[in-house]
Amino acid sequence: MKSRDQEYKEIFIAEALEYYDALNRHISDLEKSPEDEQLLAEIFRLLHNLKANAKAIGYVSIADVSHKLETAFGLIRNKELNFSDEVVTVLFDGIDMLGEMITNIDSPKEVEPSPALLRNLDIIVNSISENTAELSKVQKYYTSKNLSLSDLIYIQIKKLDHLLNLVGELIIDRDRIVSISKELDNEDLKNVSAHLYRITDELQYSVMDARLVNVGSLFNKFPRIVRDIAVAEKKEINLEISGQDIQIDRNILQIITDSLLHLMRNAISHGIEKADMRKKLKKTPQGNVFLSAQNDRDTVILKLTDDGKGIDQQEVRKAIVQRGFLPAEAAEDLRESEVLSYLFEPGFSLAKEVTEVSGRGVGLDVVKNAIDSIGGRIRVDSKKGEGTTFTLFLPTSIAVKGALLCQVEENFYAIPLMHTDSVVALPSVELHEVGDLLVADINGETITIVYLKELFNSELHEYSGKKSKLEGDVQNIIIVTYNNRKLGLIVDKLLRQQDIVIKALSKPVNTIEIYAGVTLLGSGKVCLVLDVAAITRYFIARR
Amino acid sequence: MEITEKKRILIVDDSFYMRTMLKNMLLDAGYDVVGEAPDGKTALEMARDKVPDLVTLDVILPDNTGLDVLKGIKQDNPEIKVVIVSAVGQEVIMNEAAEYGALHYIIKPFSEDKVLEALTNAFKEE
């Protein structure tokens, strides 16, 4: 545990370095426009704070130099001291000195301000500006001697993207080598490849780690955004945020930024009721919105909850029918979770009820697409009168995904774990034909079942869903979930769970919409990655 | 029972270091810190939104001067008590602050005792 003094010291140094950088910037600007009063006021404020903080923590020399500089800038501000070349030099020296003292607070050799500098400062502070002839040249031993650079560097995300791609390629080759070394059964080769395995593993995690940022870097923008939306909507909102320390890949956070903003707007504009309505409903006049992040193994879960009016299931069912998605009877048969999943359909909207602003529903398909694009998923839960929760399940990292490997005929396929729900073995007799689809009752739910072997061997529109095509008495079924909907996939064989690096498909294969990409297995075999989202969408539409 | 309720304090200071020190000090002493504002605009908004019992106010702020904030707070809600915490010890400013209704003027660097004593006194003067 850090002691409070240690914490104070760290805060002091971090803030002092920030002030120091700002001072350097401002004084350079001031040289160009010496009359700029705002700049002068800002410099004065920074020095003033630095002095007060240094005094409080007990760094006497820093307080002393800041005080002298503050006085000098005070005089310049009041036009009692000219911002002449000689004076500027002394001021620059003084600020350099401050920087030197701040960066060396933790170093064993304490940096004392140079006496010549202190004297120069005294001269410009105490005398009239003509007396600058007395100023002595300050030997700048410090700036030239040890120019210290920050321990932090900024790096373009593009460079990290490239690095991650290379790591991906490397892992594919590594898995190949590991596999070959087993085949050749050569001890030396086995040892080297085992070592290679560990090193690349560590390299992969280091690169992934370098790309992680705190969710807080996005979350912390929300208090201000929420305030602005609340003011515009004339609503009172209490926003609570938690889990800012949870880490996630920077690009993933970037991709979901607009989505989260969109969901937040929806929650406040359409979810939270006006204060007088809330009072009538015996709710707090302030609407409550909770934004949270948490980790669950390799997944980051973001939740946005409001305690507003919630989504009316009956209205959604009505809209499903009105907009021609389903006939009325089918809409009545939908499970609650299925009803809400229609909110994410392109063109679906409840806008009729809320014509004055954009209706809830507009744009939710865009949110969904963004989350699909990074292999995440979204889920909505809502209770009429009580509120709505959007849950975003996001991968921590882009490049490497956990996947379930399976086999259909001679070929290998991968299904991202993000979308797998469970695996069941079902006697063929429990599968039923409904129209041109197979269905089964699994744990009390009627689930559409897709026979992958037939799917892979026929054009999409030719897929028959006939039970007669099935082989064997027992079927291995992987249940996948997408957008609150479940789908069962019949495979020949379940293999294992494995981290895979997904590569985009090159043309012309990428026109096949049931594959999300391709990966190479250690054996050198090509393994296609199934696009669970596309397959589910296709079969739900078919139903 | 109002007596047992924690007094709600808003800290206004442009330095994170100062805010952290003050906050820890006040929390340890059993006050409720309802907000921290780094500039005048935020200070006025928070004073309006959170309606604290007392504001500790710095004089030199990036946007307004602290005295403008003091005036603004008192104009919005004269009930909110204000104690100035500043490194500026000029008599003119101290007098002006008193004129606008600041109850105490603590000069930085402050000792914990001074701050707590000033706050205790401010609440006694109810």
From TrEMBL, chain B:
PANTHER family (alphabetical): RESPONSE REGULATORY DOMAIN-CONTAINING PROTEIN, STRESS RESPONSE REGULATOR PROTEIN 1
Alphabetical GO biological process terms: phosphorelay signal transduction system
Cleavable signal peptide = none
What Pfam families has UniProt attached to this entry? Answer: Response_reg (PF00072)
Keyword Phosphoprotein in record: yes
* Species lineage: Bacteria, Pseudomonadati, Bacteroidota, Cytophagia, Cytophagales
Where is coiled-coil annotated? none
- Name of protein: Two-component system chemotaxis response regulator CheY
Species this chain originates from? Rufibacter quisquiliarum
